[in-house]
Amino acid sequence: METGLALLIGVLVAAAVYLMLARNVMSFLFGLLLISNAANLAIFTSGRLTEGAPPLVPEGADAPVGIVANALPQALVLTAIVIGFGLFAFSLMLVFRAYTGLGTLHGDEMRVAEPKEDKA
Amino acid sequence: MVVITGIIGVAVALYSFADISKSTEALGFHALFHLLLAGVTGAFLTADLFNLYVWFEVMLISSFGLLVIGGSKQEIDGAVKYVMLNLVSTVMFLTGVGLLYGMTGTLNMADLHFAVQEVENKGLLSVVAIMFMVAFGVKAAVFPLFFWLPASYHTPSFAVSAVFAGLLTKVGVYALIRAFTLIFTHDPELIETVLLWVAVLTMVTGVLGAAAQSDFRRILSFHIISQIGYMVLGLALMTPLGLIGAVFYLLHHIIVKANLFLISGVANRIAGSTELARIGGLYTHAPLLAVLFLIPAFSLAGFPPLSGFWAKFIVIRASLELELWIVAGAALFVGLLTVFSMTKIWAEAFWTPHPDNIAPKLSRLSRHDWRAMMWPIIALAVMTVIIGLFPGVFYPFVETAADQLLNPTDYLDAVLGPDAVAASQSAAGQAVIVEGN
């Protein structure tokens, strides 16, 4: 299970890096989406995987008995997913504004805020 | 650390005064601005890595909002670059947090200090350390990860760029200092060497970039980078004096840099542009502004008796003590180039007559605006002078802060037991909360 997830993370990161290296801002964004999910999976996996053991505290006990799933990474991932989603929505909107305002999705052509280049 | 946070809190309060008066065109500006401040202070106060991530996010989201609030093409353009690079660094940070948790089973920074030393897989630990270094390095805008900063800092409104310049990169530096004095102490050789050269290159490229620019705010943006180099240098030396220098520099730079950006805002209002070729004559028409520009500008360049002199002096002294001649030489040389680019602003904006023979008019500012813009500038300039004239008053505070930073790395102290250190950590946190109230 861990091996499978590790491979999946690897594939996700590779695809994300490929997308992010593109000049197009849109594909950069998709790359970002993939890589943030890869990061989430990495957190999840590094919290150790246990199958079919919800971290429930039996009645009368203070802590769950036996080996149960680790709830902390799940909480972390949940937070990260929410934040990541919000950020993605924001950047999608930003890119849309950039596209309507600047008329391009090409990273190299976004030079409105840069000083003019010498044509020497 | 309590002391640092306290002083920074005062500075932050000053900024917000400056801002509230300046930007009345608020589109939810003040809400975002205070969210940003909350994010920054949260990041300074937290003792938990994941919380640090969350605070970074709070800070980032509100800074994104502030960056695009004007909605001009320039702002959007700058924001695209800023957002993209910062998001990458965030993901990197998050992955690092995840892997570190996998290895140690804790995310509390004090706890990590001890847990990290028990990790057997040192190689993976170094990889994670480098991931943190890259992630914080992007935030702090060190070489070679600084490209987003000059691309975006000159686009938003002046108040916003003053806050960004004063605080955002410093949070990155703070996080670097925290992470590498407290958590990743397993392989000082590697990390110090990397940080040292990163610091030197940051200083040099930053100041060279500044020398090549011709826009008021772009010059200042590149200066931020070279100044970050000094702070990272102080950290990289890992000696008590080096850390004192880094902390002192942090405090001095927050004040000075925010002030310079505020002044560029006034200059823009009076003269009509920030492009140096298109303004001039400020000295004859606004002598007060000229004097107020000189104070932080010279302080940045490190003229005695201003605060920048002491900050630079301590860092360079620390590197001389370790007999790192090249590093110290580079630091001095960068100081010289800083003077050069500052005189460029001075000559072009203040001394030369206006190119179109349009005299800068004070009357472009209403009386109310003038007061609201000048008072914070004057206050910050006075703080610079005070720190410069009486460094002895501040030195002990900074010294204790540096001591507290360095002590956990001391192996002997570590042996005293995690409880003592953890207790002092949480006590420090509580003291700050009380102070904040």
Could you walk me through the main structural features you see in this protein, from its secondary elements to its overall organization?
The complex is a heterodimer of chains A (120) and B (437). By secondary structure, chain A is mostly helical. Chain A has helices at 2-20, 25-46, 71-102. Chain A has one domain: Helix Hairpins (Orthogonal Bundle). The mean pLDDT of chain A is 79. Chain B is mainly alpha-helical. Chain B has 2 domains: 28-187, no CATH class; 194-427, no CATH class. Chain B has helices at residues 2-22, 29-45, 49-68, 73-104, 109-118, 122-140, 148-152, 158-183, 188-212, 216-237, 240-271, 282-285, 287-301, 307-321, 325-351, 367-389, 391-406, 411-415, 418-436. The radius of gyration of chain B is 21 Å and the shape is globular. Chain B starts with a helix and ends with a helix.
Query: Sheet bearing the most strands of chain B, described?
Result: none
Radius of gyration of chain A: 21 Å
CATH class of chain A: Mainly Alpha
Give the assembly state of these chains.
Answer: heterodimer
Which ranges of chain B are low-confidence, i.e. pLDDT below 50, for 5 or more consecutive residues? 409-418, 421-437
Report the biggest beta sheet of chain A as strand number plus sense, adding barrel if it closes: none
Percent of residues in beta strands of chain B: under 5%
